[in-house]
Amino acid sequence: MRIAVVSHIHGNLTALEAVIADLQTTGADLVVQGGDLVGGGSRPAEVIDRVRELNWPGVYGNADEMLWMPHRVTEMLQAPHLQRVRDLLLTHTIPATLRAIGEERLAWLRSLPIRWSTGDLTVVHAGPDDAYRSPFANASDDELERAYGSLASRSVVYGHIHQPYVRRLSRFTVANSGSVSLSYDGDPRAAYAVVDGDEVEIRRVQYDIEEEIARLSESDDPFKESNPLP
To answer: Residue 79 contacts by C-beta under 8 Å, 6 or more apart in sequence?
Structure first.
């Protein structure tokens, strides 16, 4: 079975629609979403609705979890240089996102699991039991083994770091699916993964970034001036 993993949409419906179109060319039998449906884009409610319409199974990410567990933002962003980000998330982004998506969509997000598995493939947002902590792209094989070896799957796909890669270990393959929105690796295109057994392909998709920038600039998002969309 070929399974696509689409992660970190972050409210960017423009990029999501481009990925949906590209998915038609991959022969994927199933699409799994890897969390962070909201946070950072102009249309979080529409993204949730589109994913639900497509009936994609999946997991929640830290940007989703912070809507119902804001205290974790404080716990994870304690460093002094992160104070402004922490304050904006707590005083603006979280309340604004909650208003945008409403109670019913929030309840749906909260119903998502922290991990999804077929046996051969496990999808998590970050760690197996934590939506905030995951290995970096330059992690050693031993670190990846410690992080994900207990899952006992042929392939493990995670997100969180917004940097796609594929690493074949002795017992299983670990991959980062990259991000549909807010790429951190210098390539502004949307990224997602297609898994076939222990083979993982990272796909890149061009989308109308200027359209999303225009939508974001019209919003009241406090991060719009520093948003990593090019």
So the answer is: none
For residue 115, the enclosing domain spans: 2-217
Predicted confidence band at 226 (pLDDT cuts at 50, 70, 90)? very low
Q: Is residue 225 part of a domain?
A: no
213 pLDDT tier (thresholds 50, 70, 90): confident
Instruction: Tell me what the mean pLDDT of segment 20-32 comes to.
Output: 97
Residue 94 tokens, joined: 């979280």
Task: Indicate whether 81 belongs to any domain.
Answer: yes
Mean pLDDT for all residues in the chain:
93
Residue 171 amino acid letter: R
Count of structural domains, the chain: 1
CATH of the domain at 20: 3.60.21.10
Q: According to the model, what pLDDT value does residue 157 have?
A: 98
Which token pair is 224?
A: 């719009």
Residues in contact with 165: Cβ distance below 8 Å, sequence separation at least 6, in sequence order: 137, 175, 176, 202
Structural domain includes residue 227: no
Q: List % helix, strand, coil for the chain (3-state, nearest 5).
A: 35, 20, 45
Reported as a single tens digit per residue, the pLDDT across 54-105 is: 999 999 999 999 999 999 999 988 898 988 889 989 998 899 999 999 999 9
- On whether the CB atoms of residues 15 and 203 are closer than 8 A, the answer is no
Give the gyration radius of the chain's Cα atoms.
17
Residues linked to residue 168 through DSSP beta bridges, in sequence order: 173
**CA pair distance 31, 35, nearest whole angstrom:** 13
Residue 228 domain-assigned (yes or no): no
Rounded Cα–Cα distance for residues 130 and 113 (Å):
11
